[in-house]
Amino acid sequence: MDETVAEYIRRTVLKIPRDEIKTMLQKWGLLSETQLQTINFRQIKENISQDVVQLCEENSADIKQAAVLDIIYNHVYPNKRVWSVYQMKKTGEETEFFDLTDFKKKFKRRLRSALKNVTINFREYEDNAIWIRIAWGTPYTKPNQYKPSYVVYHSQTPYVFISASVLKSNLPLLCQALVLASNYHDIREMELRSHSLNSLKDIVFKRYSQNFQTHYPRPLQERNVAPESADLRIIQENKTEKERIERVNREVFGDGPQPKLEFAQYKLETMFKSDPQMDVLDKKEPFRCLVKFSSPHLLESLKSLAPAGMADAPISPLLTCIPQKARNYFKIRERKHFFPGSFVSP
Amino acid sequence: ENADPQRTAFLLRKQWTLYSVTPLYRFSNAHLRDYARLLSSFIAAEKQKGLAVEVGVELDIKVSVSSLPYLKGSDQDQAAILVQLSSRSPASPKNSEEKLIWSGWFCCVSGDDLSKNVPEDFTCLPLFLVNGAECYTSIVGSWFQKTFDCSFRRLAISPLILSWMAAMWTGCKVDKTASAMELVFSVPCLPQPLDISYAIHPEDAKALWDTVQKTPGEIIQEEVDVFMDCLYSHFHRHFRIHLSATKLVKVSTAIASAHCDGIIKFLQSQYLTGVLMLLTELAISQIE
Q1: How far apart are CA A51 and CA A55, in angstroms?
Q2: What Pfam families does the record point to (chain A) (predicted)?
Q3: Which is it for strands B247-252 and B181-187: parallel, antiparallel or unpaired?
C-alpha cells in the first residue's frame, strides 16, 4: 500500500471522535468484522489509527477506497465545512429521467478531459442525495487529498451544495461538469452560505414553517399559557403589548424552528436621512455601510430580539425574508419606496 | 509632539492589553540595568519553582528594560519605560537570534492631573500596555508590585468611551486609503447570542462627523451623542433594531482599534500620542 494512502487513512481516522470510529469503519466496509474485532477501540486514537492502517495494508487499500472513508466522515459531520448553494437552470420544462450512471460518466469525463490528476468518488444516500468528492491535482502533481471539494446534488432538484475548499480556481470547471452531467444549461451561485448543510436544504427545499407575508390582524390564538406566577399580586405590565409582540413575531418568523444559519451580510448603499432639525449630513450620495450579523443560530437570535425589547415588532423584512429569498448576502439600494419590491407595505 | 514614526513602528499593529498602574515608589531611570538584572533573577527563580513559563518549553529568558524618552505628552511626563523578554532555546547556538516573546511598557502622556498630586518619591506611569503570554505578564507584574509597591488593574473601556473614540478617530485626517469605521455590538443575553458588525465607509463616516462637529479641535459629549444617534437611526431605518439597547464592544478605525475588555491596537504612528493621551486619562481615572 502506498505510503501516502497509509498516511491519509491514518489522518482521517484521527479526525473521527473515538466513540464513532468503529461505526464509521463498519459503514466503510473495507475491513471485515473479523479484522475490526482485532482492534482495541479503547486505546488512544493514535494507536487505533495505527492499527487501522496496518489492517488496510493487509487489504491493499488504494486512494479511492481511502477517499470513501473521508466521504463518510463528512456526511456525518457536514457542519465542519462551509457550504454554498448553487442553482442550475434548464431552458425546457421537461423533467427528464435521471440516469445516475450517465451522470457519473459525463461528470468524470468532463473533469478528466481538463485535468489528468483528479480523484473522483461518488456515494449515494437516502432522499436522492449524491455526494461527490473531488481531490484536485495539476498536470504535474498528484491530487491533494487534504483539500478536496465536496458536492451534494439532489437529483430531483436543480440545487447543488458545494463546499469548495481552498482551491477556488477549480470551481468553474466543477460547475461546468455538473451542468453537463445533469443535462442543465446553466448554473449560478446563490447568495446563500452556511455551515449547516441541513439548514440550507431546509431553506431551498422549503422544509421549514413559513411565515405569512400579508399583514392583517389575526385573533389571538388560544395557547397553553401557564400563568406567569402563582402569586396574583404580581401583575404583568404591558400585557397587551407583550402579546402583540409575540403574535407579530410568530407571524413574520413562522411557528416552527428556524433553519440554522450563522451569519447574514448586508451591503447598504442607501441614502442617509436624518431629522432636518439635526442639521447633519445631507449628501446626495449613498451612505455606504456593510452590516454583518453573526450568531450560532442567527434566525432564532433575531426572532428573540423583539420580545427582548431590542427591536420593533415586526422586525425588518430585510431580516425575515432570509429563508424565503434563500439568501444571506444582500445588497440594498435606495428605491422610490423604501423596501425592495416584494414586501407588502403595512 | 509626534514621535518619530520609525522608532514607534514596533508599537503599531500589535494587540496591547491595558492596565492602570498606581505610582511607583522609588523608581529611578538611572537604575534600569539593575532592574533588568533583578527581574531576570526573579524569573529564573519562578521557573525553578515550576511556576513560570509555558509548559514543556525550556527557554533561556533575557530581560531588557529601557527608556523611551520620546513617548510623552508634556515635559512633566515621565519617559515611557519598556520591558522586553526575549528567549533563546538552549539547544540553539550562542549567536543565534533571540526571539522577542513578551513586551510591556509603562507610559504617561499628559498625566499632569496625577503627577502634580503625588509626593516626590513616586513616579507616575499610570498606563501599562502588554503584548505576550499571560504567564509572563503575571510574573513581571508581581515583580513590579513587590519592588515598587504599586498595583495593576485591568483597564476596561466603557461603551461611552468607545463612542468617544469612534467620533474622535473618525474625524482624523488619514493620508492613505483609510479602512472602514467599524462598530461591533454584542447581545449576549439572548437564548442565542448575537454579534452585529456595522462598518461605514471612512469617507462617509467622516463626512457625517464633520457636519456634527461644530468647533474644530474640540469635541463635546453632545456632538458624540448626535453622531452615534445618527448611526443608530440609520441602522434602525433598515433593520428596526435598537442598537442603543445593545452593548458596544469594539471600535475600529484607520487610526486605532479598541475593545471593551481593554485591548488596543495602534495603526498610525501620527496619532499614537493622541491615543495614548486618552488612555492615560482613562488609567488615571481608574486609579483615583
Answers
A1: 6
A2: CENP-N
A3: antiparallel
Degrees (nearest 5) of the Cα angle A95, A98, A100? Answer: 165
Give B-chain residues touching A280 at CB under 8 angstroms: 208, 211-212, 226, 230
ipTM: 0.88
Confidence of residue A230 (pLDDT cuts 50, 70, 90): low
Spatial distance between the Cα atoms of A206 and B244, rounded to a whole number of angstroms = 35
Beta pairing class for B16-21 and B60-68: unpaired
- What amino acid is encoded at A72 in this protein? I
What are A194-207's pLDDT values in tens digits? 999 999 999 999 88
Cα–Cα distance, A69 to A92 (Å, whole number): 38
Chain A residues with CB under 8 Å of B192 CB are: 295-298, 300-301, 304
What residues contact A229, with CB distance under 8 A and at least 6 apart?
A: none
Q: Taking CB atoms and an 8 Å limit, are A304 and B245 in contact across chains? A: no
The beta-carbon neighbor of B191 closest among A290, A300, A316 is A300
- Nearest residue of A to residue B181 by CA position? A289
- Dump the DSSP string for A175-237: HHHHHHHTT-SEEEEEEEEES-HHHHHHHHTT-S-----S----PPPP--PPPS-S-TT---T
Assign B25 to helix, strand or coil.
strand
Residue B211 with chain A: CB contacts under 8 Å: 279-282
Q: Which residues of A301-311 are buried (b: 16+ CB within 10 A; e: fewer)?
A: bbbbbbeeebb
Helix (H, G, I), strand (E, B) or coil at B248: strand
Do A288 and B194 count as a contact with CB atoms less than 8 A apart?
A: no
* Nearest-CA distance A317 → chain B (Å): 8
Q: Is the pLDDT of residue A345 over 60?
A: no
Closest CA to B230 of B248, B215, B243: B243
What is the structure's pLDDT at B275? 93
Residue B10 has pLDDT above 50, yes or no: yes
Task: Give the whole-number percent of chain B exceeding pLDDT 90.
Answer: 65
Q: How far apart are CA A170 and CA A147, in angstroms?
A: 12
B232 in A contact zone (CB under 8 Å)? no
**Interface residue A232 vs chain B (CB under 8 A):** no
* Residue A256 clears pLDDT 80, i.e. is over it: yes
Please give the Cα distance from B230 to B167 (Å, whole number): 12
Give strand pairing partners of B184.
Answer: B197, B250
DSSP SS3 for A246? helix
The residue of chain B with its CA nearest to that of A295 is B194
Put simply, the answer to whether A332 touches B207 (Cβ < 8 Å) is no
Average pLDDT over residues A309-314: 92
pLDDT at A332 over 70: yes
| Best CA proximity match to B135, nearest among B102, B100, B87 | B102
